[in-house]
């Protein structure tokens, strides 16, 4: 019915540092692949209409959680990729945002594996910090896009 896509939200993510390749594949490579696919249609240099990409990264892209360095690095890579895309908007016509939520109460944070099992209680320790609900995260996500920031 719509015949067009205006917004791509890349939101897949896993948190299991014992699955190194899978963590990188989902959190970073997946983001790159879906973004690359939509860019073929949106890039104004190819006659596309432009569009908006919102990649859900993480505050760990700025401040890594040392117990999960693979997850943190995968999110930092996604953040860097998105920042680069944002700087190309004047060329491609595609706006790119990174959404960098803090600790959000999802299945990801209830139980997960730290890198080389360095901290078996990492999920429990993480939840000692301030958290947000998925609804609060989503509302802030929409506000950020609407504010164009």
UniProtKB/TrEMBL annotation:
| Superkingdom, natural source | Eukaryota
Q: What is its EC number?
A: 1.1.1.1
Q: Which InterPro entries match?
A: ADH_Drosophila-type (IPR002425), NAD(P)-bd_dom_sf (IPR036291), Sc_DH/Rdtase_CS (IPR020904), SDR_fam (IPR002347)
- Matches recorded under Gene3D superfamilies: NAD(P)-binding Rossmann-like Domain
- Enzyme class, spelled out: oxidoreductase
A Pfam family of this chain: adh_short
The Swiss-Prot or TrEMBL record annotates one GO molecular function as: alcohol dehydrogenase (NAD+) activity
Q: GO CC: one term?
A: cytoplasm
Supply the alphabetized keyword list. NAD, Oxidoreductase
Asked if the Swiss-Prot or TrEMBL record annotates the protein with the keyword Secreted, the reply is: no
Q: What are the BP-aspect GO terms?
A: alcohol metabolic process
Q: What reaction gets catalysed by this protein?
A: a primary alcohol + NAD(+) = an aldehyde + NADH + H(+); a secondary alcohol + NAD(+) = a ketone + NADH + H(+)
**Quaternary state and partners of this protein?**
Homodimer.
- Give the similarity note: Belongs to the short-chain dehydrogenases/reductases (SDR) family.
Name of the protein in question: Alcohol dehydrogenase
The species this protein belongs to is Drosophila differens (Fruit fly)
Organism lineage string: Eukaryota, Metazoa, Ecdysozoa, Arthropoda, Hexapoda
């Amino acid at each position: 019915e719509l015949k067009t896509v205006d917004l791509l939200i890349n939101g897949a993510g896993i948190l299991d540092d014992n699955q190194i390749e899978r963590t990188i594949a989902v959190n970073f490579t997946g983001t790159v692949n879906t973004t690359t696919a939509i860019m073929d249609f949106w890039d104004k240099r190819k006659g596309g209409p432009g569009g908006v990409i919102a990649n859900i990264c993480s505050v760990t892209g700025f401040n890594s959680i040392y117990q999960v360095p693979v997850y943190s690095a995968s999110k930092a890579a996604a953040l860097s990729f998105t920042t680069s895309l944002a700087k190309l908007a004047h060329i491609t016509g595609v706006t790119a945002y990174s959404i960098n939520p803090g600790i959000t109460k999802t299945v990801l944070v209830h139980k997960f594996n730290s890198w080389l099992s360095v901290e078996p209680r990492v999920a429990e320790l993480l939840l000692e910090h301030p958290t947000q609900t998925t609804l609060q995260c989503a509302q802030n996500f929409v506000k950020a896009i609407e504010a164009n920031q």
